Amino acid sequence: MTFSACAISNPPSGHGFIYTEAMEVIYYDPYIKPQQKATLCSDNILGLVSTGDSGFTALKLNSGIRKISTMEREYKSILSLYVRSCLIVKGEEYNYVLFCFI
Fold this sequence. Notes:
- A five-stranded antiparallel beta sheet has the order 1-4-5-2-3.
- It has one domain (19-93).
- A hairpin with a 3-residue loop joins β4 and β5 (82-93).
- The protein is built from one helix and five strands.
- The chain is mainly beta.
- Helices cover 8% and strands 49% of the residues.
């Protein structure tokens, strides 16, 4: 029985065995101002251990973004042993208004 452990990313330019650092635009809306930025990352070590949360719930809880203007994916990989994949979301933030009645 043979085991092979590699952490592999899948950027649009292709995976570099020694080193990868790439970004891609997933979504762009020129009519929404990017006031707020949220970065959600997930890590993989040796293809054996994966951690992180790049999901929609984490975005809603941690960012305060109401409307999305851009979504980008960033990939970093070293020797196929360690991979980090980040989702970078920019958009309009919530405008909280507090009303006080006296």
